[in-house]
Amino acid sequence: MNQPDAADTNAPAARSMAIASLQRFLGDRLSTTPSIREQHGTDASYHPPAPPDAVAFVRSTEEVSEIVRICSRYKVPVIPYGKGTSLEGQIAALQGGVCIDFSEMNRILEVNVGDLDGTVEAGVTHEQLNEYLGSLDVFFPVDPGANATLGGMAATRASGTNSVRYGTMRENVLSLKVVLPDGRVIRTGSRARKSAAGYDLTRLFVGSEGTLGVITEVTVRLCGKPAAISSAVCSFPDIDSAVQVVIRTIQAGIPVARIELADPVQMDAINRYSNLTLPVAPTLWLEFHGTAASVTEQAGMVGLIASEHGGADFSWSSKPEDRDQLWRARHNAAYAAKALRKDGQLWPSDVCVPISRLAECVAETRKDLASSSFPTPIIGHAGDGNFHIAFVIDPRDPDEIAEVKRLNERLVQRALAVNGTCTGEHGVGYGKMDFLLSEHGEAMTLMATLKKAVDPDNIMNPGKIVRL
Q1: Residue where a domain stops, chosen among 296, 313, 334
Q2: Residues 326 and 345 in one domain
Q3: Rounded to an integer, what distance in angstroms lies between the CA atom of residue 16 and that of residue 342?
Q4: pLDDT (tens digit, 9 = 90+) per residue, 291-317?
């Protein structure tokens, strides 16, 4: 993908003056150390590092506001940073600038069990929040594979294995506190469960990847903990059979909490990495939440559907330790894929399609991958039509880079051809910017208009989502 040229206003002299002002404001909490800068310009993907000029470690919304005011004065880019787990270059400082690190803004500010909501600073991770909620009867349901921050999850519109029942960050964010490009602070909504008051600013900023403002606080929905949970895995003779079970389960209105799909390559990787002995075949991972009676009923209904489509080795467990082992292995799928090749580097990609087209898209993709020169496991959130490919490559090999680009483009174009999307949850960053015009057409003009209106100097994470 092409990286944008640096803006004319982002001159070295302006950056130096901005950094000097920030140094006076933050003292030793502003770092220009090369190793710190390198770390903050590197995400969890194949994208090469693009370090910022300085890293600011913040402790309050007020500090973020002042930092943005200084950067706005000198027209210096601002790049928010949570845990660095993004997968499409969202944290890359393509034009240099100042990275705002939220690791010290990690307080849980308020939990309202009766209203099923909570407010946290942007640096709180989803695992940290759920650990805090451990003694209460509520939990936060969005669970991406990495232990990402709530601010980063809101910015990238993250989801995960629970999204088929509980939704993504789009459905689970009630309100945000955001610092605008000129330093002003706004709150995008209230704790009310619905509102017809004005534009939906919360949804504007959810998924904006730091290109419109800096998220400093997140108010999220919480869910009641289910009385009973049951998990299972079931293997199938082919991908189509497994997907047909998914389709019939969803159409039957069975409130499955998780329904994941893994192909044989991914199952082999999982077995090796997590020391399991699951069948090396197309496999569904399932979980049901509810009362003991309802979970038993749901499991029985899905078991019957699975048996009609050749499902085998159906094994259930309601013991927490067994369920934890099962889902830990699922969440470690990316590490398992990477371990398939010594010194391999992950080039992850994802698309999302209507569920009725999932089987054909996965089958056609597997045909493409059959002759690839490197391991390419497929895993996905089958319940919402989202699937992932982990290209395990040698980033030093230009032939492999060219091959991945070709395969990834075919993957995306196949998804778009069935009215799907180029990314279900990884986001755009700059890695998938070139696909947005094919997906959105003239709507990209409106996105660019919004970007220019909110951020006229293009200092908010420039070079991502919208190319100006």
Answers
A1: 334
A2: no
A3: 42
A4: 999 999 998 999 999 999 999 877 777
Residues 236 and 289 placed together within one structural domain of the fold: yes
379 has a pLDDT exceeding 80? yes
312/174: higher pLDDT:
174
pLDDT digits (tens, 9 = 90+) for 51-97: 999 999 999 999 999 999 999 999 999 999 999 999 999 999 999 99
Query: Could you tell me if 248 and 305 are in contact, meaning their C-beta atoms sit under 8 angstroms apart?
Result: yes
- CATH code at 329? 3.30.70.2190
Q: Is residue 351 part of a domain?
A: yes
The residue type of 437 is L
* Tally of domains within the chain: 3
In a domain, 47, yes or no: no
What six digits make up the tokens of 383?
Answer: 């319940």
Whether the predicted pLDDT of 152 surpasses 90 = yes
Report d(CA 82, CA 36) in Å as an integer.
14
Contact call for residues 235 and 312 (beta carbons, < 8 A): yes
Identify whether the C-beta of residue 418 lies closer than 8 Å to the C-beta of residue 353: yes
pTM of the model: 0.93
Q: What are the backbone angles phi and psi of residue 325, rounded to the nearest 5°?
A: -65, -40
Rounded CA-CA distance 101/99 in Å is: 6
**Do 330 and 238 share a structural domain?**
yes
Nearest-angstrom CA–CA distance, 323 and 141? 16
- Residues 112, 92: contact at Cβ < 8 Å? no
Q: Are 444 and 466 in contact (CB under 8 A)?
A: yes
CATH number at residue 413: 3.30.70.2740
Position 9 scores a pLDDT of: 47
At 318, is the pLDDT very low, low, confident or very high (cuts 50, 70, 90)?
confident
Residues 133, 211, single domain; the answer is yes
Q: What confidence category does residue 11 fall into, taking pLDDT thresholds of 50, 70 and 90?
A: confident
Taking the mean position of all CA atoms in its chain, how far away is CA 456?
A: 27
For the cut 50, the answer to whether the pLDDT of residue 7 exceeds it is no
